[in-house]
């Protein structure tokens, strides 16, 4: 097992609840298994996963285990609850090697009967004035996207409703609109927003309430706008969210959940309970983006996913083999992730 640090700059700073991020730092993981070298990525994100230092320690400890034991013991040494990004890095490398050894792309390793060439993806539009937001959505639609996610919650509900109404009037009824409040609303604000978003045909609002308010999210359901949970999955098991009947949609980030395998399992479990999965990245480099793409490709009839995030990086670990056309991302059909580990360069 080999672990190499990397850091890639963002094309523009990313504002989060915990500060502004100007680069993404993490680790490339390589692991030899079944005669193949698999490659993985561990890219922690503050507020979502462990810190970079904790990730480094987790991978260092795992590498020591790998010297004397097999991959099962390495996985057991990486706790998805405490070091999910570290576990994601090793688990992805292991799965990449397994799929290569079996001669299939990773999504077919999850489901050998699947054939998937493209996965629908959404465009994400940040906060702006009504005209700026409508312009951005219109540009995304012209680029081929038929699903757009709009950031809300930084302004008053009145102003956000005005923004979304302006977008709907500009692009018409054929474009799917989603909103992401990042837990910014109170229950009263969320109820008001949902009542006014329903006539605008907003598909769902992502994390309308704070992460720990499962009861409040459950109460919002059934009012014409779906409830999607994202931050609520950081500190609790997905099973508890499903048991609380608190979501119509689960936003599943493989980096946060401890690996592609965990994300795939939870997506199918959610689907069994009538909750739709949406697979997204945490603004990762190309290795982790491909892992998330293959998870999405392995799920039948998956809706638009949050995978079109490569343009947020000013540099990357390797050339991205995917393309985005007409609102869908191509899925590599070569074995494993679709990358040659030798071409993944931390200092690229």
From TrEMBL:
Annotated EC: 4.2.1.113
Binding site for Mg(2+): 180, 206, 230
Residue span of region Disordered: 325-348
Keywords annotated in UniProt: Isomerase, Lyase, Magnesium, Menaquinone biosynthesis, Metal-binding
Keyword Chloroplast set for record: no
Pathway: Quinol/quinone metabolism; menaquinone biosynthesis; Quinol/quinone metabolism; 1,4-dihydroxy-2-naphthoate biosynthesis; 1,4-dihydroxy-2-naphthoate from chorismate: step 4/7
Biased segments, Polar residues type: 325-336
Single biological process term from Gene Ontology: amino acid catabolic process
Domain of life: Archaea
InterPro entries registered for this protein in UniProt: Enolase-like_C_sf, Enolase-like_N, Enolase_C-like, Mandel_Rmase/mucon_lact_enz_CS, Mandelate_racemase_C, Mandelate_racemase_N_dom, OSB_synthase_MenC1
CDD domains: OSBS
Reactions accelerated catalytically: (1R,6R)-6-hydroxy-2-succinyl-cyclohexa-2,4-diene-1-carboxylate = 2-succinylbenzoate + H2O
GO MF assignments: magnesium ion binding; O-succinylbenzoate synthase activity; racemase and epimerase activity
Active site: 151, 253
One Pfam family recorded for the sequence: MR_MLE_N
Xref: PANTHER family: O-SUCCINYLBENZOATE SYNTHASE, O-SUCCINYLBENZOATE SYNTHASE-RELATED
Protein name in the entry: o-succinylbenzoate synthase
Organism from which the protein derives: Haloarcula mannanilytica
Gene: menC
